[in-house]
TrEMBL record, chains A, B:
Aminotransferase class I/classII large domain sequence ranges: 164-520
Classification via Pfam families: Aminotran_1_2
One of the record's GO molecular function terms: L-alanine:2-oxoglutarate aminotransferase activity
Recorded family membership: Belongs to the class-I pyridoxal-phosphate-dependent aminotransferase family. Alanine aminotransferase subfamily.
Needed co-factor(s): pyridoxal 5'-phosphate
Taxonomic lineage: Eukaryota, Viridiplantae, Streptophyta, Embryophyta, Tracheophyta
The protein's name: alanine transaminase
Keyword Transferase attached: yes
Source organism per UniProt: Arabidopsis thaliana x Arabidopsis arenosa
Enzyme Commission identifier(s): 2.6.1.2
Keywords attached to this entry: Aminotransferase, Pyridoxal phosphate, Transferase
InterPro entries: ALAT1/2-like, Aminotransferase_I/II_large, PyrdxlP-dep_Trfase, PyrdxlP-dep_Trfase_major, PyrdxlP-dep_Trfase_small
Subunit structure, as described in the record: Homodimer.
Length: 540, 540
């Protein structure tokens, strides 16, 4: 089946794009240019399927869909794609038209955005940010009544790292050195292996760091990046934008989304036989959307594979704090590599971390970093140069990244409340993950692997043939058809599996575990009722 | 001379790159790939001239300069380039080796980074940021003793725009709607023409917005962007990274860096005759590095030119608050276009604004936006899609952008102190600009146009032939040679003119006006003494 996908690429891409393309009746925009090398399973990433208003055919404006960069047309990002646009329109309409809907609010389960669904920020982190933002507070006596002593202390220490305490200045393009020292120490404490602050590049969230590496590694469509299917679509979008080729490797749903080295090898060899120079392997651990936490042995196999094949290992580790099951543990790929005896000269490894996930959920602050090891100094200088073009990442995000990697310790004033907040959030996430997983597994024709980590469930829906035909009649992918029906019936927003990639002929959706606990019963009820009606309507 | 540049491109690029290439004795890295189309005047943007350590020839690591994306090799960003690396090493050495140097500190005049040189942030802005960072402060009675009433009020209003007051959540990918409303109102108040919040895309500083537009407009080297020479090298770097061609138009030093439509036309036609599809015109107003403020009539000519030639007008307006001369005034290009009767359907216009400049200087906060008008809705959706891949810009930066476009008004609690801070900073900038301009003009063989706006002086140095030969012997560009000598003698860091582009055979450097007033006399003295010695050494 998989060889079929890749060999039939061109014809099938066009065919499935026509099949899966949602066209509104007045759709008049020109077709995106044909895609040379995307297997059908991935066509959803690369076709321009978002709702398009008609081009103004009388327009005299110089820029048209035909004249813009085709890589922009090609890239898709379903997490904020079509279904979210529909949901936003519904939400707007709900304000004035409550009675027209069987629900009174839209619940956004499409995006890993915890604080938008009621999760509170960690108090100590926000205290430190506020003090750094308005440092003259530190000179006021009232401040001691308003802020914890350790947040005041930490703010002073951070400000001491910043020349002139100028939090409004551009910093070093890799980020403030003192904060990188703290982050490196945090990495070392986590892994038991040293980390070098000069290997750290602080970025506005992890996404710009991913873009930087894609831009570095991809010269043309002849350069490929091995990506898990299903994957978080930043990778497919970024590869498309930078003109490379996505080489898929399929996670195995039957074995809890296991990663088989034999499949990696096979995909690698097929790509090479087509003249693609495969540059890197992306691994998301814990997984998004799939939620698995890799077994350490599996990680060792992956590291060895990259070493043998000369691949850069791009390790998306942003969910490292989100592990919910006692039989799994997060191990950084750097720790695994160093434990195998691979050092700086042996393996090229980039680890991405972010302040958006974990128990802190500070998505809007745009903090993150990549730790870059195992590159020659001349290539490192090129990475630095790329970072320097945008000067530096935002200072608040840099500060948050250092707090995440060096939170309150036993004995600190804030330690107890910090631990209570942290444990409360993580245990609640584990609980909500289990509740939703069980609810999904109870639905007819639905199977859902457990979420060992991350923030998502990725259930598989066995859609009856009637439903698939109804979807085709609406020129919609079957999973998108299901998700739109779900949205219209319940107000719950999830993302069709085709936004992430899936084995062709299988259908999934990604649902976050993030609505607050008090909303979960209602979501489960509405989902269950909807699914039953849907199956009643379309059951064979 | 200019036709010569472009026609002799390939041979001269190689020749001048060898001439201008700074090679340390142990330089062993492979040559960057030859560049097809960069005129010699621009070769400095596009050659990889930063200091390179030797490749580890025994390395088994897979990524090498030969295998990375050649566009990355090609791009340069001199503002944080070679001379800054040298300065940082000197600064490090100064800590332990003070006596080895004729100065006791490095003064960074290479970058528009006001707060790194002692400028303080606007108090009201930081109060609001701190309150939004740690909103529970708003529930405490002590807060009223620590914060101005209007900052508390503004924080409440901002938080009301954010669903759930969740400042840690990802926002709408264009930025928080309520903040865009405020910004649009600010634009309207400034220009007297309406602005639509849906045209605003809030970004992490202006740079990511520039990248987005370059990525949209450039499909290949056959797509060109008209850029001023000299220019702020984000433009050349971004064009290189996105694989397009920079089409230069020369600002006229003799007429205060005037922009001649006849030169624009000529460069456009030459580019077109070489098969380049010119997509846009970049105008930086007030200018960087050149500091001129365009006359309104000149702006009208530019708008008409873009309309007639079907070019997108990319207006870098980040220095709109930095105008120092009574005979010039900032007019936004949108205002000029609308005043000419051009509406949404007539002209494609993008205006970039940032919180990094003006009197606020909040570089590290990474706040900014682009206002995008005159594109069809299908193209607009593609721009939205690009913005959505990175989710949203940082919330603090978004908040700051709204404060910058809607600062305290008469009657507000903070108004008087805000105006005092603002006027103090701007009048001091005007004063420092004049002092430094006069000092530069007093130097033998140096002429310096006045800084009508922005934050820079861009003096021309007439280097004696002996100096040029000494530079060549060191395989350094003559202006870089001068700047390095200046750095080593005085500790003052400026950027060689070749980092910005200049008419071949002319030499300049860019120096900011940002060191605090009390440092200016020492800088002037050291510069004057250095220049005299330099001329004594190299005078013909």
């Amino acid at each position: 089946m998989r060889r079929f996908l890749i060999n039939q690429a061109k014809g099938l891409v066009d065919h499935s794009r026509r099949q899966h393309h949602h066209k509104s009746p007045s759709f008049l925009s020109p077709q995106p240019r044909p895609l040379a090398s995307s297997p059908p399973a991935l066509s959803r990433f690369f076709s321009s399927t978002s709702e398009m208003s008609a081009s103004d055919s009388t327009s005299s404006l110089p820029v048209t869909l035909d004249s813009i960069n085709p890589k922009v047309l090609k890239c898709e990002y379903a997490v904020r794609g079509e279904i979210v646009n529909i949901a936003q329109k519904l939400q707007e309409d709900l304000k004035t038209n409550k009675d027209a809907y069987p629900f009174d609010e839209i619940i956004y389960c499409n995006i890993g955005n915890p604080q938008s669904l009621g999760q509170l920020p960690i108090k100590f982190f926000r205290e430190v940010l506020a003090l750094c933002d308005h440092a003259s507070l530190l000179d006021e006596s009232e401040t001691h009544g308003l802020f914890s002593t350790d947040s005041i202390d930490r703010a002073w220490r951070i400000l001491d790292h910043i020349p002139g305490r100028a939090t409004g200045a551009y910093s070093h393009s890799q980020g403030i050195k003192g904060l990188r020292d703290v982050i490196a120490a945090g990495i070392e404490a986590r892994d038991g292996f040293p980390a070098d602050p000069n290997d750290i590049f602080l970025t506005d969230g992890a996404s710009p760091a991913v873009h930087m590496m894609m831009q570095l590694l991809l010269s043309s469509e002849k350069d490929g990046i091995l990506c898990p299917i299903p994957q978080y679509p930043l990778y497919s979008a970024s590869i498309a934008l930078h003109g490379g080729s996505l080489v898929p490797y399929y996670l195995d749903e039957a074995t809890g989304w296991g990663l088989e080295i034999s499949d990696l090898k096979k995909q690698l060899e097929e790509a090479r036989s087509k003249g693609i120079s495969v540059r890197a392997l992306v691994v998301i651990n814990p997984g998004n959307p799939t939620g698995q936490v890799l077994a350490e042995e599996n990680q060792r196999d992956i590291v060895n594979f990259c070493k043998q094949e000369g691949l850069v290992l791009l390790a998306d580790e942003v969910y490292q704090e989100n592990v919910y099951v006692p039989d799994k543990k997060f191990h950084s790929f750097k720790k695994v590599a160093r434990s195998l005896g691979y050092g700086e000269k042996d393996i090229s490894l980039v680890s991405f971390q972010s302040v958006s996930k974990g128990y802190y959920g500070e998505c809007g602050k745009r903090g993150g970093y990549m730790e870059v090891t195992g590159f020659t100094s001349d290539v490192r200088e090129q990475i630095y140069k790329m970072a320097s073009v945008n000067l530096c990442s935002n200072i608040s995000g840099q500060i948050l990244a250092s707090l995440v990697m060096s939170p309150p310790k036993p004995g600190d004033d804030s330690y107890d409340s910090y631990m209570a907040e942290r444990d409360g959030i993580l245990s609640s996430m584990a609980k909500r993950a289990k509740t939703l997983e069980d609810a999904l597994n109870s639905l007819e024709g639905v199977t859902c692997n457990r979420a060992e980590g991350a923030m998502y469930l990725f259930p598989r829906i066995n859609l009856p043939q009637k439903a698939i035909e109804a979807a085709e009649a609406e020129k919609t992918a079957p999973d998108a058809f299901y998700c739109k029906r779900l949205l219209n019936a319940t107000g719950v927003v999830v993302v069709p599996g085709s936004g992430f990639g899936q084995v062709p002929g299988t259908w999934h959706f990604r649902c976050t575990i993030l609505p607050q606990e008090d909303k979960i019963p209602a979501i489960v009820n509405r989902l269950t009722d909807f699914h039953k009606s849907f199956m009643d309507e379309f059951r064979n």
